[in-house]
Amino acid sequence: MTGEELVRDVFDASYRRLVGQLYTVCGDLPSAEDVVQEAFVRALDHGRGFRRIDNPEAWLRRVAVNVQRSRWRRMKTYAGLQPKLVDDVTPFEPSPDHLELVRALAGLPEVQREAVVLHHLADMPVHEVADMLGVPIGTIKTRLVRGRTTLAGLLSDHDEERHV
Amino acid sequence: MFESKLRALAASAETAARPPAFGDLIRRARVRRLRRRATASFATLTAGAVAAVLAVNLSGTPRGTSPVHPGPTAATSSYATSPPPSRHYLLKHPVALLHQPDAEISDVSYADPNHAAALWYVCSAGGANGACPGVLTWTSDGWRSSRAMVIPDKLNIYALPDGSVVVWLYGNNSFVVAPDGTTRKLTLARHPISASPGGPLTNLPGINGTRPAGMLDEKTATVYPPLTAPSTRCEYDDHWDGHGRIWEIGTPRCGPTGNPTVAWSSDLGRTWSTHRTGQSTILGLAVSPSRTAVLLSRTQKDEHDILAGLDVTEDGGRHWRHASLPPDMILAPGSIATTTKGGMLIADGTYLWKANSQWTAFRKLYPRKLKARAVTGGDQVLCAYGGSPDKAWISTDDGQTWRSISPRP
Fold this sequence. Notes:
The complex is a heterodimer of chains A (164) and B (409).
Chain A: H1 3-26, H2 29-46, H3 56-77, H4 82-85, H5 96-106, H6 110-121, H7 126-133, H8 137-163
Helix pairs in contact in A: 1-2, 1-3, 1-6, 2-3, 5-8, 6-8, 7-8
Chain B: H1 2-16, H2 22-58, H3 87-92, H4 94-98, E1 104-110, E2 116-121, E3 134-139, E4 147-151, E5 156-159, E6 165-168, E7 175-177, E8 183-185, E9 187-188, E10 201-204, E11 214-217, E12 222-224, E13 239-240, E14 246-250, E15 261-265, E16 273-276, E17 281-287, E18 292-297, E19 308-313, E20 321-324, E21 336-338, E22 344-347, E23 352-355, E24 362-364, E25 374-377, E26 382-385, E27 392-395, E28 403-405
Parallel strand pairs in B: 9-12
Antiparallel strand pairs in B: 1-2, 2-3, 3-4, 5-6, 6-7, 7-8, 10-11, 11-12, 13-14, 14-15, 15-16, 17-18, 18-19, 19-20, 21-22, 22-23, 23-24, 25-26, 26-27, 27-28
């Protein structure tokens, strides 16, 4: 099996799952699809080396998250310019229930959002999340606690708004 | 509560995602490679021009020091001291190669607890045509002692119960290494076996998704190509279930997707029965004398669909039942194995999962974090490897207890 065939297999099996996970990190579907596609292009670019990777899906997730982090950095630099360059693209409308969660996730700082998604959605243990993001385990634990607390607060706020 | 909401949100995004044509991604990767090459060529030309100018300018200046050669690494110094070992020297000394820091275990094959072989992949040494050489080690006494030899590339290996090792080179250069290190060429039959062999046949399956070697008749050192069911246009592993039946996976188009079926034959491939799984991907077959299971995964999804599962038959394919797998399994081809005792094991890249005796439920095995990428099941032995570059794990009690081995000579 060539590297390209292996990437194709992983693409068939994992593309949608990765998009689902990255959607909760990025907050919008086009960005999620974009970073996941970028990860697959890099996998193809990796050639034979990709065959030696133990867990291709985890590798792709790591690349996609890193691509998204670089984009966040760039977006901060060009924050003022961006609205003039692109229109909002929202082809995917989450259901009202999901919309609350999307808003709540968007309300989290990026570092907390990454930690919450990787740990709770991608089922990565804390030490693997720490390894992937290049920070100490304690930092990830703190981000998880703060992220969950903020998320709980934001979700209950939304519930209260609904009741009112 | 929050976790389930998060999962539901991700699932809805999964459903909405529209995978692009894979060809587009290939084109993007090619364009990127071409751009990089063009940039590199330009940089080389520029550097060459600068060096030429400097050389002309400095040609009258005496040299300060002689050229510095990199010395041997600590790991290789006991085998090669001074002068530094050349690549040729290293290739002649498998043990020195094994002590390269990037020697990475790529395959382990157990025939029984004593007879086994392991293969390392050493990319820094650079073999013929730029391929990475492999170091084959094998033992007949459970790794208390072992021998080693260099083979030209990463290949499939198969340990046999008589202590020899099949080195499969995808063609006419394949050979068998005897316990004493002498080699014997394998004969490749042009057609699948058509009559019942005198002795037992050994299945030489594909490893980690590679193309299978076929069936080895040890008496005549002949390898027969795999049988191919009518529904199969690609070659897959033949699995013999101990009752004369051969099982294999078939897909209408070459690849893991496309409405795959499982086919089985009781008459050496003359007639076939099939089971259509209804799932889009089959990742492997687990065949034991008492039951056969098909490891499934899917790419299509709706609310009622499942992430992964098993189709199991206990009556030679007449009736099938479906068993769910833990939702957090991340599956890959080649990650399922059975033992002769009827046990079944799945490696999902992070954990090893053991099926209960009925193959209806799974639990994580000790040690929990093997990072296994593949498992091989044999007579009494289960072996898992991957993750750690120089270790494999074996269990000789059907997965109850495990010990790590580092089968270096």
